[in-house]
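Q: How would the structure tokens look for this protein?
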Amino acid sequence: MILTWNDVAEKFQKYFGQPPAWIVRAPGRVNLIGEHTDYNEGFVLPLAIDRAIWIALRPRQDRTVAVYSVDFQQQKEFSLEGLRACQDGWLEYLKGVAWVLQEEGFRLTGWEGVLVGDVPQAAGLSSSAALEMATARAFAAVSEIAWDPVRMALLGQRAENRWVGVQCGIMDQLVSAAGQAGHALLIDCRSLHTEPVPLPAGTAVVVLDTGTRRGLVDSAYNERRGQCERAAKAMGVRALRDVSVEQLEAAASRLDPLTFRRARHVVTENARTLEAAEAMRQGDKHRLGQLMNASHQSLRDDYEVSSDALNRMVELARSHPACYGARMTGAGFGGCAVALVDQAGADDFVRTVGPAYQQATGHQPALYVCQATQGAEARTGCQIG
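A: Here is the predicted structure in token form.
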């Protein structure tokens, strides 16, 4: 079930016995195209999805943050004084955001609230970034901090890097903070310039969770990143973002075959991402689908981060007549694929592809027809209802 503002207000009312002062939401995301390009200072094209992390809250007079998680059925709290990391599960994301906001010089107000989400966890849809941006939006609301999406995304990334200890890029936090309804967000991961790009009319985006979870992703991620850095150094550039397809082909003799293939994925993926944005501006859903298909082939063969489950899901998705294109999305080795489908055929797509995949693999999938939604937002209690 997709949550609504009223649903979240009712959960606060049930727990605290009165309406909330504020409700905030921050969406999860799926990346249409542009995979493993972010740490090469390249381009990505994600969209904020209509599944989010929500917090209904009211300010406190002291400097305590107290939160009840509906999903975990846990009440936890912390003081804004003397923050310390202590591996306290989901609460660490809230503490990390509080720490980084105070490090930036913001004077924070304590609050208490109810936390609930409908972003599937561990599915590659960035529930952690959504939690960070929802927390930042909550502090901004009660502490009267102006909402700057790019700055807050950078602070959320710093909290995840330095407090939680996950070395993520900027894409997840930025699209959760700055997404636009009906659009994907073309992000330049070097300049952080963003441009909303409309989804082609009459299409839907379907997230296809394979029911498998990523294995060996940390070591593989670090290995791929190192290979990209060596390729950039061999070519005398700051990052592979600065290399064209023609330049890479000309430099093939200077790279070992494996490093060349890794670099070829990144360089061609950057080109595909920019071409995909142009196809979307033109409303060319067929070309966008072709580029998504080519992206999967490159991730599978050159970057080698797909899996049997992802490949099978993508094959089955493409075999459905409503599908324009499909690819794995996220770090790889499991998790989710994404498909662009004809909106009129989306329900049949879900009814057909899910069972076919389960029969073929034995894994229980989950398929979500998604809409592109607004980034993190806040409403006062009196705006709800």
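The first strand starts at residue 22 and ends at 33.

DSSP finds eleven helices and twelve strands in the chain.

Upvote if useful.
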